[in-house]
Specification:
The complex is a heterodimer of chains A (637) and B (172). Chain A has six helices and 34 strands. Chain A is mainly beta and 637 residues long. The two termini of chain A are 42 Å apart. In chain B, helix 2 crosses helix 3. The N and C termini of chain B lie far apart (69 Å). Chain B is 28% helix and 26% strand. Chain B has one domain: Rossmann fold, CATH 3.40.50. Classes of the chains: A mainly beta (637), B alpha/beta (172).
């Protein structure tokens, strides 16, 4: 199981063992943002609202990219996957107007083999949002107001010891702002050839200690093309209340409610509903001593009418963690949690789960010690014991080493073990055609396993330039395959017949050419070598593990033309997908924003401008991605 | 590998930047820049600034590089903004002067600026310095009070909008 709150502090505290590489990173609001705020908004900003030492996450000994609030606002995208494109260490491929395939370090799946990207852990304010039914994420159900996001931490590589079993190839940790930092009224509206989106938010405070905000968002995606029937709509509302109960205590209550639908070619629309509420208590005794207790409830449901199947899922989660210094050299983080996920599935014509109704109980306990071996060398050892309903207890260890020869450079290395635990889709699924069982999930299906070897460096080359490079070698075993019946072919069943390795690196830099021009290049190399084990059938071929590009290159440019005009541009190159084949492409985005009065901004944004449309995934499973242009107005009051 | 080695060497030899200021200090630095448009200075005060608008800091500097980042590429009253740390130098060509906690060399600073058209700003809880505008912390928020009487006596006109935002205004 993957924990909710762990994210908030555990990694932060690990990171706090290292000196800050990026001065100023500990501020939630960037200097540019403060400067551009109206003087009344400045007067309303709760300066005590910053999560203490949050910025230190950027110094963790892992391949971690932090998407900042400024990056998000300047990118002009409103969908969460669009925002995630800003992270060079994520592979984000669009399949339909509201559908995406998102993965890190490959293994993005293959719908033909019913293999979906299922090795990422995604958290929104400590709440796990991937589905325990198949370990994948319904991206159309996840949304945040870009304006309210504080930062998104994207970790490529395993985070299993600290985060949980599904953090196999990466973790996406979305952190929204404390309500004290989102005071006042805000409206935004945008419209263009493919997308309409409108948001409303109001933040206020009750006395000195309680800040709150509530928001409403509506969005409509038009069809990707005249031939594609994939239009979608969604509405979402929510709130967040932060109570500074004392100097050491912060109590947060937040929740969202949403619904939406998207069209499907030759099928009725698929409808989704969701709602969640989270309560969290943080007590901070000192920068190295803190306690966090969190509980949340989450409801999710999806349905295709006219017998197309539906499910509902209710999750309760409790999590606690404590960190403290043990003597001058040891920093301990320990904690645990329990989650129950109750689901009920009404089978569609072809797919059912047996039993259709079940409660999964997941529990974990973990501890990690950061040892300052010398002032510049830190060793981190962690162990997690996890109990999942299908494979029982699993041990997930990791070891990391961080060396900081100076305040401006860090080298790190890590070895970790992670598993993707079996899900109902792996163990309980039954697929039928004309009442004949075609495929089922056998009890023999085991966890998919990874041992990852990583090393990297982060350098501040000057006050204007920084660089990060992270290399990896991933050794996988027991990946899911499709095997025939012992005698004959049908019914097919899942097996653990694939093993192999992948290697490559993620690199990115941040370079300020002048006061007004900043460049952010990024590059990812991914080489995958997988094979069937000797006793595997080899059914459907090795391409079922994923169809990933080998090279991804990105370049973003941010220009300030005077105090009122921003020009942002980005280029991205994605090499071809091998099997099924998809052509390589270069695409471009651009945005021109004009702050015409204080607090108000008018902008024109264009995405995928170089082609009328292009494919990011095979045409058999995805619609072409069209050129998108819109005009947006944002107003802070 | 050689290139990587060179990077590491370069990184080690560069001096570390100052410690990161708190959000509170960053908000105060933003205020110093934001106050400008709400105040009118006599034109003569720009005679010796080389056309620039000068934000000065005396005594201890709590802002570090954040103050420079705030004004990067910005203008106030149509003039490019420069930041000067006085470290004992005369504040007479400054338009805005933040009075940090006194150091030995700046001990006599406040009396130097009395009657000059310089908008002085200080922390209210400092105790050792007082300015026309003083920052106060209220309910986790950085607010300010204004001594409009002192500003007028120095030839400065503070707009009613800024006075309206202050938690207290001393008209004298």
């Amino acid at each position: 199981m993957r924990r909710g709150l762990r994210h908030e502090r555990a990694f932060t505290l690990v990171a706090a063992a290292f000196a800050t590489l990026h001065p100023g990173a500990s501020m939630a609001q960037s200097v540019e943002e403060l400067r551009d705020m109206s003087i009344t908004a400045l007067a309303d900003l709760d300066v005590s609202s910053v999560t203490k030492s949050a910025g230190a996450v950027g110094d963790a000994p892992a391949s971690i990219y932090v998407i900042t609030h400024d990056d998000i606002v300047r990118a002009g995208t409103v969908s969460l996957p669009g925002i995630l494109r800003l992270a060079p260490n994520l592979e984000v491929l669009r399949s339909s107007a509201s559908g995406y395939v998102i993965s890190a370090r490959g293994l993005n799946g293959n719908p033909r083999a019913q293999n979906f990207p299922n090795k990422l852990l995604v958290l929104i304010d400590g709440r796990t949002v991937y589905s325990p039914l198949f370990s994948g994420v319904y991206w159309d159900m996840q949304n945040v107001l870009p304006e309210d996001v504080d930062r998104i931490e994207v970790i490529s590589g395993p985070g299993a010891t600290l985060w949980g079993a599904n953090a196999v190839n990466g973790v996406i940790n979305i952190v929204t702002r404390n309500a004290g930092a989102t005071q006042g009224g805000y409206i935004s509206a945008l419209g263009g050839n493919r997308l309409f989106d409108a948001s409303l938010r109001y933040g206020g405070h009750l006395g000195d200690a309680i800040n709150y905000r509530f928001y409403l968002n509506g969005r409509r995606n038009r069809d990707s093309s005249a031939a594609a029937d994939d239009h979608a709509y969604r509405v979402q509302g929510g709130f967040r209340v932060d109570w500074n109960a004392s100097a050491a205590d912060l109590v947060t209550l937040q929740g969202d409610i949403l619904r939406g639908s998207h069209a499907q070619l030759n099928a009725p629309n698929e409808i989704f509903r969701g709602g969640n509420v989270t309560a969290r208590w943080n007590r901070t005794w000192s920068p190295t001593s803190a306690l966090q207790v969190q509980v949340y409830y989450d409801h999710a449901g999806r349905e295709t009418r006219k017998g197309g199947g539906r499910f509902r899922l209710d999750t309760f989660d409790f999590d606690a963690q404590h960190s403290f210094s043990l003597g001058p050299y040891n920093q301990i983080v320990w904690g645990g949690g329990v989650r129950t996920s109750s689901y009920e599935i009404d089978a569609s014509a072809g797919l059912s789960l047996v039993p259709p109704k079940r409660t999964l109980v997941l529990a974990n306990f973990f501890a990690q010690d950061s040892v300052a071996v010398t002032p510049s060398l830190t060793a981190i050892a962690g162990l997690k014991l996890e109990h999942d309903p299908y494979s029982g207890s699993v041990l997930l260890p990791s070891a990391r080493l961080s060396w900081k020869p100076s305040a401006r450079s860090m080298l790190w290395a890590a070895v970790s073990r992670a598993v993707r635990a079996p899900t109902p889709f792996d163990r309980d699924v039954v697929e039928k055609v004309n009442n004949v069982t075609l495929l089922f999930g056998p009890d023999s299906f085991r966890s998919e396993k990874l041992i990852a070897y990583e090393a990297g460096t982060r350098l501040v080359i000057s006050s204007d330039a920084s660089l990060s490079i992270s290399g990896f070698y991933n050794d996988y075993d027991d990946l899911r395959s499709i095997e025939p019946a012992p005698a004959g072919l049908f019914p097919l069943r899942w097996g653990n017949g694939i093993r192999g390795h992948s290697y490559g690196f993620d690199a990115w830099a941040d370079y300020r050419l002048t006061d007004w021009w900043r460049l952010k290049p990024g590059y990812s190399l991914l080489i995958q070598k997988f094979r069937f084990k000797p006793d595997a059938s080899g059914l459907l071929g090795i391409s079922q593990i994923g169809d990933d590009p080998k090279h991804r290159v990105s370049l973003r440019s941010s220009m300030d033309l005077g105090p009122r005009i921003n020009v942002d541009m980005d280029l991205r190159y994605v090499s071809h997908l091998p099997n099924p084949h998809v052509n390589a492409y270069v695409e471009m985005g651009a945005r021109l924003a004009w702050r015409f009065v204080e607090g108000a901004e008018l902008s024109v944004s264009g995405f995928n401008l170089l082609h009328k449309s292009h494919y990011e995934l095979p045409a058999s499973q995805a619609n072409a991605v069209p050129r998108t242009v819109y005009v947006a107005l944002k107003w802070h009051m | 590998m050689a290139a990587l080695g060179a990077f590491v060497v370069a990184a080690i030899t560069v001096s570390p930047l100052m410690a990161a200021p708190s959000l509170e200090d960053a908000v105060k630095a933003s205020y110093l820049f934001k106050f400008g448009p709400f105040v009118d200075w006599p034109p003569s005060t720009f005679a010796n600034t080389g056309g620039s608008f000068q934000i000065c800091i005396s005594g201890q500097d709590p802002f570090g590089s954040v103050m420079d980042e705030v004004v990067r590429g910005q203008r106030i009253h149509g003039r490019p903004v420069t930041v000067r740390r006085l470290s004992g130098a005369s504040p007479l060509d400054c338009q805005i002067l933040f009075l940090g906690k006194p150091t030995k060399t700046d001990a006599k600073m406040p009396s130097d600026v009395a009657g000059q058209p310089i908008l002085t700003v200080a922390d209210a809880d400092d105790g050792t310095t007082s300015g026309m505008i003083e920052f106060v912390l209220q309910g986790g928020r950085v607010r300010f009070q204004i001594d409009d009487g002192a500003a007028r006596a120095s030839g400065l006109r503070i707009s009613s909008k800024l006075l309206g935002l202050a938690v207290a205004v001393d008209k004298r």
